[in-house]
Design brief:
four-stranded antiparallel β-sheet, 3 domains, mainly beta, Jelly Rolls, three-stranded mixed β-sheet
Length: 394
Amino acid sequence: MKTIRIMLTILLAVVTGSSMAQGVIIYKSNGTQEKLPYVAVDSIIMYYADQTPVQITTPKPVDLGLPSGTLWADMNVGASAPEAHGGYYAFGETEEKLTYSWSTYLCQQSDCGKSSDPLYADGLLTCTWVGGYAFYVKCIIAGTKYDVATQKWGESWVMPTAQQFQELFDYCTRANVKINDVDCAEYTGPNGNTLIIPLSGGYKENKELTDADIYTHPTRFWIADFDYDPKSGGNATVTASGQSVASNVFNEFRYRGKQIRPVSKYTYIPTKHYIYGKDPVAQPPFQPVTWDAASMRFSDTDGAHFPTISDDVYFGLKTLIVDVADASDDCDMKVMNGWWSNTYYDHVKLVSGLNEIKITETMAQECAQGGEGKDLDLMLYSGTCTIKSVYYEE
């Protein structure tokens, strides 16, 4: 590891740099300076006299292979490691404080959703008041001056939405693990990568840390959006036995101090291009027949369901995604061409959910009409399943 050790007085040169900085300038006490490009610095460690050096860590995006392409930060805001809880922040505030209450919050409870509420005044919170009740509540602060992730880490990071947290819970498998004696939830994405979230973090109410260090109590996270009560922020919780997220919450008061787990603002969200199943009425789900080559042959003339794939698609295609439902345990298929002259993958297990088929240049050349015109063919050996759609992403 490349390491730079700097005295406390020199640290100012680092912490005052912008999020768009291309490197680090070290101002030395002898009047000289050293400029290092960003790529040359692995980490920065500050130390005080003979004390143990303390490492300043940089958050990293984790690609879990989620359908939306969302990249999650590997740690909380204010944390030094994935298993650390980090800072506690009131909703819409960007600094920690000693007391978390309405009296120290950016507006009073009775002002939430009204002109004296900064979120409302800045157009980030909207609602309609009828007879003292708020209707059509909508708020999102991701990427704004009220987003602590953006303000602390720079414009490439934002607070997650309820939808992004829900996707994390829905598409990842979970196991409880212990890291450096800290109980954590480990989420494994569809691509096998993992994300660590510490448990038992609780939240801050007044001057107290509430529901912390108790295994059965949840770690609470603010999310960037809410849509029910002007005084209550959206909330995600992770406990030892489960997790949940909601934007339509009540009495999760905005003044409370909670943790923040950001996502990357520059998430790549691929576009789906359907070959079959975009319109479930015109192209309905079907059950392929075993040992029937026509059942899943991509051909307008020789296939029972799938259309011919165009040459433009074939010669740029890397992965074909087959969305399957109700797959039996013995669901097994062969990936070949329609002439039976070449088997590309044999005994491929189909499971309920998304199944990926890698397309090689050889496959494209043999199957495309502008090539040998043999058509891609998926033939079911055994078992039963329902084919919902077939698509690729760009």
